[in-house]
Structures are given as structure tokens and as C-alpha cells.
Design a protein that fits this description.
Layout lengths: L7 H4 L3 H22 L1 H9 L21 H6 L13 E6 L9 E5 H17 L7 E4 L7 H13 L2 E4 L5 H11 L3 E4 L1 H13 L11 E5 L5 H11 L2 E8 L4 E7 L6 E3 L4 E6 L13 E7 L10 E7 L1 E2 L11 E2 L10 E3 L2 E3 L1 H12 L5 E8 L2 E9 L2 H4 L3 H19 L4 E5 L14 E3 L5
Parallel strand pairs: 3-4, 3-5, 5-6, 6-7, 17-20, 18-19
Antiparallel strand pairs: 1-2, 7-8, 8-9, 9-14, 10-11, 11-12, 13-14, 15-16, 17-18
The structure holds 5'-O-[hydroxy(phenylacetyl)phosphoryl]adenosine.
The site of 5'-O-[hydroxy(phenylacetyl)phosphoryl]adenosine has 23 residues, from helix 6, strand 7, strand 8 and strand 12.
């Protein structure tokens, strides 16, 4: 089947034309923030740069970075670039520490955002004939309203379920024939688990695709979700600060996410030095939003670690691709001096368990020594195995974890269903060291 695009002209635009478009928009955007946001003007003046120095994307590196701290300092209106009366929406991050970040949208900003999500839904095979079940949380979180708006734009029949009430999700899915499910990957795994518990198989539902994001998930988890729901699972990326989901989306190749470059210029930098790194190098993702009116972000440091690739994609899109984020630089745990990303642990667990495991990473400190425990839930099948089998599994997990991370973890196997399920972003790490 021929690949379908939401905006073919943009999604398959030749590179030189895209650079020209980005450059024009960047020049305009820099003038906009200089004229309307004193905070930006001050930061630019401190770096000795003015709009006269910015002629195109080749000058991007001259501009100062913006971090979450800047957004918190500017809370709530400090980075607003239009009169508040021109704004039609506010969304906010799910941050649990410190002040939340609030993002503002004009009607044009909402239209741009929904257009980006419409591209993602189309790339996942969505058309106006689809029934889209939105099981991301609604409210200040951008997941629900973002997918909802994109689904409307495509003309899909939209089911605004929000997250939670999983049995009811499944009942509606069956009764109303949902064909596309949108939620976090951890919630998709939970829905798959509940479907089986309710005595259904993937043949009893009409789902064909899922659009999952908002948290890191591994290839192993993708395979497990695809199997449990009988679908093709697509990744979607975004953050509140840059509008929400839809900054980047996966196509049929399922190998990296295309960044909507006509709206967001992506860079990879060395997180330590801030130096831009070439495509293909792992580093911190930085975005400049070149079309947003109300809340433009210039060189915003996402903290997400990934790789950009400009290799030709079989879907025909020319938009640059980002790899799945390999964790956030601020999510990385340092345990006994070793860098640990929860996704590394998930990969091992799924490999050894052959299924999406439910797990929790617990880090603590006794005296000056870190303790590192991984609680892993046994499946019903394993629970009925002999003690000997369970001990063997525990040993294998422990050895595999040590091999990947270079440090030893205490593996604790726990009863089925004893680890809390997630209906939104999963909380995998309990770092008790931060509490003191
Ligand atoms: O999570 C927006 C979103 C909603 C994206 C629904 C996709 C789907 P925040 O709550 O501001 O916004 O969190 C943004 O979540 O910096 C990443 O660390 C992480 N994240 C988002 N999408 C992915 C993904 C929404 N596909 C932060 N894979 C980002 C891995 C992701 N991490």
C-alpha cells in the first residue's frame, strides 16, 4: 500500500528547500522574541548577539540556550511573546518537583500542534474512517488534548476516554470498534494484560494500530504490546514546552521518529560542553520552535538523550529522524558511580522474561554505600513453577543485569499483580537517596 501523508509537500520536501524554509522562519522568530520577550532580549544581549546576527540556520549556534530553569524563573508569564488576550489555551508539565512549567497557545499554535499530530495519525495508517480511542490523560497534560485535536483534524471518530477505568476502556473498544489506541506504552501494556484477563483475545477487538509515547519504552516492550493487542505500535514524541505530542512521530518503518522540521529545528549537543554534535552522534536534543507565536522556545535543552539521522527513509519522508530517547540526562541514575538508565534494565528483564515485566527500581543509601534493588513481578505461570525454577531465574537475571550495567543488583521476585500498574507515565524508579 502506498504511503500516505498528511502534508506531502512538507513531509517529503527536498533538504535544500527545508533549510530555506527553516532559515526564513528562524530569522522572523528571533525578531519576534527580541521585540516581545525582555527575558530573551536580555539573554541574547548577555551573549552579545542580536537579530542582525541571525541570517539563517547556520547562525543558530550563536544563540543562547534555554533550560527548564529559565522557564521556572519566568513562571508564569515571563516568556510569553504575545498579549495574554491573544492566547486561547494553557497546558502544563506533569513535573512533580518545583514549579510546573506552563505553556501558552494562540489559535495558530493550537492549529500547528494539531497539524503535527494529524501527520502522526496519518503515518500510523489513520484516516477519517478510523475510530480513535484517546486513553492519554486529559487536562493540563498535553497527551489527551494533543491526540484528540489531531484525531479531529484527520476526521476520525474520536473517543475521549482519558486514562483509567481499564475494563470500561476495553468494553468501549469492543462495542464501538476502536481501530487506533492512543495512550502511554505502559498503559497499553496494562490494557493488553487486562484484555486477556477478561477472557478476550486480540481477535475480539478491531484495533489495528497504537500511537504510544510520553515515556521511554524499549523495542522489546513494543513487540510485547503488538502481540497482546494484535496491532502495529507507533512511537510519538513531544514535550509540553514545545507544544506537546507530535514534535516527532514514527512511520511504517518503525525505526526512529520523523521530526516536524518545518516547525522545530533539532540539534544534538554535548550535554557537558554545549557544543553542537554532528548527525549520528549521541547527545542531548535541543529544539528551536520557529512557528510558535505565544510561547516560542529558542535552543531549548530537552535533557533527552538521542541520535539524529538523515538516512533515507523507505516511507519517502525527508524529515530528519530522532532515535527513541535513551532516557533523560536527568533521569539517569548514578548508582555506585555507574550510569544506569532504566531502559537498559527493562531490555534485560523483557529478554529473560519473554514478556513485559512489571518492575520497580529501588535505590537507597546505607552510610556512604548505595543499595540497588530491582523488584520484578512473577507472572501467574512462573508463580506456579518450582522454587528451584524461580531461583534459577533470579540468578540469570542478576547475572544479565551485572553484565549490562557492570554493577550488581539485588533481584527480588514478587507475587503477580503486586506492583502498581500505570494508567499514565509509569513510575519505575524509587530513589530514596533524594529524600534525605
Ligand atoms: O509527555 C507529551 C507527550 C504526550 C508525548 C503524549 C507523547 C505522547 P511532558 O509531560 O512535558 O510531555 O514530558 C516530556 O517525556 O522530554 C521525554 O523525556 C518524555 N517523552 C515524551 N515522549 C517520549 C517518547 C509529554 N516517545 C518528556 N519516548 C520528554 C521517550 C518520551 N520519552
Amino acid at each position: 500500500m502506498a504511503e500516505r501523508y498528511w502534508n506531502e509537500q512538507i513531509e517529503t520536501m527536498p533538504r535544500d528547500e527545508m533549510i530555506k524554509l527553516q532559515s526564513e522562519r528562524l530569522v522572523k522568530q528571533i525578531k519576534h522574541v527580541w521585540d516581545n520577550v525582555p527575558y530573551y532580549r536580555k539573554k541574547m544581549e548577555e551573549k552579545g548577539v542580536s537579530p542582525d546576527d541571525i541570517h539563517g540556520i547556520e547562525d543558530l549556534h550563536k544563540l543562547p540556550f534555554l533550560s527548564k530553569t529559565d522557564l521556572r524563573d519566568g513562571y508564569p508569564y515571563g516568556l510569553l511573546a504575545v498579549p495574554l488576550s491573544d492566547c486561547v489555551r494553557i497546558q502544563s508539565t506533569s513535573g512533580t518537583t518545583g514549579k510546573r512549567v506552563v505553556a501558552f497557545y494562540t489559535q495558530n499554535d493550537v492549529d500547528m500542534w494539531e497539524d503535527c499530530v494529524a501527520r502522526a495519525i496519518t503515518a500510523a495508517g489513520g484516516t477519517k474512517d478510523d475510530v480513535v480511542q484517546v486513553a492519554y490523560g486529559y487536562g493540563l497534560f498535553t497527551g489527551g488534548s494533543g491526540l484528540h485535536g489531531g484525531s479531529h483534524k484527520v476526521g476520525c471518530l474520536t473517543l475521549p476516554m482519558s486514562s483509567g477505568n481499564t475494563e470500561r476502556q476495553i468494553q468501549f473498544m469492543i462495542d464501538l470498534g476502536s481501530t487506533i489506541l492512543c495512550c502511554t506504552p505502559s498503559y497499553a501494556a496494562y490494557i493488553g494484560e487486562t484484555l486477556a484477563e477478561m477472557g478476550y483475545t486480540p481477535d475480539d477487538i478491531k484495533l489495528k494500530a497504537g500511537i504510544f509515547g510520553a515515556e521511554p519504552w524499549t523495542e522489546e516492550m513494543r513487540q510485547q504490546i503488538e502481540k497482546s493487542l494484535g496491532i502495529k505500535a507507533f512511537d510519538i514524541y513531544g514535550l509540553t514546552e514545545t507544544s506537546g505530542p507530535g514534535v516527532a512521530f514514527e512511520c511504517c518503518e518503525q525505526k526512529g521518529m520523523h521530526i516536524n522540521e518545518d516547525n522545530f529545528i533539532a540539534e544534538i549537543i554535548d550535554p557537558e560542553t554545549g557544543e553542537p554534535l554532528p548527525d549520528g552522534t549521541k547527545g542531548e536534543l535541543v529544539f528551536t520552535s520557529i512557528t510558535k507565536e505565544a510561547f516560542p522556545l529558542i535552543r531549548y535543552r530537552t535533557r533527552d538523550i538521542c541520535v539524529l539521522s538523515r538516512e533515507k527513509c523507505s516511507c519517502g519522508r525527508t524529515l530528519v529522524k530522532m532515535s527513541k530517547p535513551m532516557g533523560r540526562s536527568d533521569d539517569m541514575l548514578i548508582i555506585k558511580g555507574v550510569n544506569v538508565f532504566p531502559s537498559q534494565i527493562e531490555t534485560v528483564l523483557i529478554k529473560d522474561f519473554k514478556a513485559a515485566p512489571n518492575y520497580q527500581i529501588i535505590v537507597d543509601r546505607i552510610g556512604t554505600t548505595d543499595t540497588f534493588e530491582i523488584k520484578v513481578e512473577l507472572s501467574d505461570d512462573m508463580f506456579s513453577d518450582t522454587i528451584k525454577d524461580v531461583v534459577t531465574l533470579e540468578k540469570k537475571l542478576s547475572a544479565d543485569i551485572q553484565q549490562i550495567l557492570g554493577i550488581k543488583a539485588k533481584i527480588t521476585l514478587v507475587e503477580p499483580k503486586s506492583i502498581p500498574r500505570s494508567e499514565g507515565k509509569a513510575v519505575r524508579v524509587i530513589d530514596k537517596r533524594r529524600l534525605v
